[in-house]
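Posting this for the archive.
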Amino acid sequence: MLSISLLLLALAAQNDGGFEIVGTTDSGLGAGASWTDDVNGDGVPDLLIGALGLPVGGPDTGMVEVRSGADGSLIRRDFGPAGFFLGSFLLGIHDVDGDGFGDYAAGTGDWGVLGPFGSGVIVYSGATGVELWRFDARVYGEEIGQRMENLADINGDGIDDLLLSGSTIPDGMGGSIFRGGEILILSGADGTLLREHRGSLAGQNFGTAIGLAGDLNLDGFEDYIAGSSNQGPFGEVEVFSGADGSLLWSKSGNGTTGPIGQFVTSTGDVNGDGIPDIVTSLSSSDMQCYSGADGSALWSDPMNRPALAIQIRVNTHLVGDYNQDGIPEIGSTIGYLGVPQFLRILDGATGETFTILGMRRVNGMPDQFAEDFSGLPDLNGDGLEDLLIGRPRHAIRPHVGSSGFDYNDDGQAFIQFMRPFLSTSATELSASGGSSVVLDIDFPASEAGRGYTMLVSAAGRYDAILGNQRKYAPMGRDLLFSRMESGYVPAFGFGFHGVLDANGDASTTLDQGFYLAEFVGRSMHFAAVTHGGFPLVPESLSNAVVLKITP
């Protein structure tokens, strides 16, 4: 069943169109989210969406829906073997069977040929759904296939290979090392094991996270990252050569920045040295960006922000370059007690909040928004990469007369087009006067006639709760923010409040910089919000732009 929605503003803060895919009854659609190269011949990459709730084909088979990236229409449903819970862990891969269409890999959840916690990975033809090859767990608890990445060809056969990790590992003597951890590289062509790294101690959790690093040593091979959340007191990140598997460098967490290694990913070249850099964090710790060349610290995003003090990271992935600065952004699902709630998009260059997708949970009701998500290629031709978000379950109301909630388990997936709603004519404003900066507001036409307010803060990247507490603003709460939220008209410009025109547009001009003298040397954050009046009841929220105040 396909439901098309031009705007998903009830769920998304920054989204210019897209479409919504709704699962069939109790399917739990959205447990996995990925994409692959075109499989239906229309030239547009297509979508992979996992569902765990369907018993079709046998008990707990799980399912992968292959859907058109052009319009979301269903191309095919692929079901796993009975008991394999297919669909939680998905990865689109390039054509491995030579038919000219994209293929995909699917992790088999917590089950496999060895029973519970065996698991493995199955590679399917994107064009037909036929199983091409599989790699099953070798010992009980190996849990292969829950973390997977495409790795550029390392064995010279012209086909990209598959990087994945496991948990409990063979010890080489017929036994196993419980949660020692491992990284495997499999041939994309046929699943042959090409390389293996193993942890040495029980509970080390080597390979808790894996990621691609780009070519850090400039030898023509793509390198890769391993996170070990239990290595030492604060975790560890190691970077390995794609050419031969040798260790390039390692980094341990510390008591100042906090533990690392549960999530790892590469980002663009943050420090301008021509080498991609690396981001890592633990679920409850600050996110750290390190130089890909030598592991030196570049930026940190604090986790324990005032608004998010009881929350943890659930998932972290590289997404698209939404602010077009040449460095991809980073998505981080934030949740309560491990249940996803909303998705923060961080500026890959600085760690600042770019935008926040999803709502603050209502009346304490659980919501699995962004259980999984994936950056997408540009599907709608606007020059910006897009975003796929899964939501397999959400509470719809508390039980009447008893504790607990009533749930909708059909599941949803949201394809979001990520054109920014707010842009700026400059990145600096002088407090000495004589210059001006224009902030262009460009909401979709469906927002025409709504009231808008420009939120302003000098409190940095912390995420303030807005109005009715259903949305987070991508900036901190300070006195200026609170006054703007109440309808205050500042003296340093005009157009801070008003009504959007017939196209959903407006502008704010900052032309009295001398009123901002107290902020010299600091960065001010701006974001536009549409609403129905004061006290502020927010409806749609833009991305943030940052303006530095200079002398």
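Residues 1-15 have pLDDT under 50 and may be disordered. The longest helix spans residues 479-485.
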